[in-house]
Model the fold of this input.
Amino acid sequence: MSGQNYSSTDDESLVKAARKGELAAFEELVFRHRDPIYARAFSMTRNEQDAVDLSQEAWIKGWQRLEQFQGDSSFTTWMTRIVINLCLDHLRKQKRHRADSIEELDEDSGGVERQMPVVTVNPTAGMERAELRVKIDAALAELSAEHRTVLVLHEFEDMEYKEIAKTIGCSIGTVMSRLFYARRKMAALLADMRKET
Amino acid sequence: MNLEQQLKLQAFLDGELPEREAREILSWTQRDGVAAALLAELKNTRQAMAKSEPHLSLPEAREFFWSKIEREIQRREPVAAIAPEVTLFTALRRWLLPAVAVSALVIAGMIAHFNVPKTAGATVADADTPTVETTLANSDATTYRDASEGTTLVWFSVAADDSSVPSKTPAAIN
Done:
């Protein structure tokens, strides 16, 4: 480690230095981007310790795969893809250990989302951004991992249906169905929260 | 409204439909109140989520978090060093270089072998080539002859009773 101060160095130069084995440069990258990487892990797992562990693992993988970073996207986007894949693996492992819920069975049969009444009044109208973030966070916590994942990838990562299907390893039809259900459930949850306040 | 129609409505909202289908859905929502209401609900949810991702911070101090990553990186790196990826180039370099070196030595040996005059003994030499002889009967004497210079040197080994006397004493005979 050179002990060089990298605080004013741009990401691209930090990546180059890190590729040469400069751990200090990589530490600076971790310092700069640790929060969004952790946030993505948390939004998918909804578990603080899992999110910390998965984001840590993502950084280690990032170091090991630095040669693969082509610079086509930003470094944060590249790191976010790594943490997303780790979270998906983690969720798959978790799913093997639990029985499918009734909610998921209903989703497969296309029943529940079609029975929910349409929320005609916008439940978030006039809400401050900070308040809206809290409500969105609370509503996301109510969704199943499968629905939340699709919603997060579509709304927060701006992925198209095809890209989500490829990332998750399912059909585009499943992505559309899960996204539809997730949105409808979010609307219902946000409407309920509005009534409570 | 069936599930397929609902999903098409959503695909329309997300800009995932071809232009012709998108026009059809737009026309449908203008005619059908239920479709329009569902589209509005989906749109409101989408807009609410846009740029509303909760801001979260890693619940660990920078130094602590980094120390765990650094330790793990260092723990895993020796494994990579022990079993590096063997590329075609490294495999060739590993086996080809010694093979080339051995081949070169063999060729050099063969050339040297075939260039040596076959008539000879060690005593027959070119006039220009100095020779060194060891008298086998008396290994205490060594002779050096240089015909071109007309010089002969003989070394006599003397038992070193006195450490100040050199063990071999050259004597020049011209």
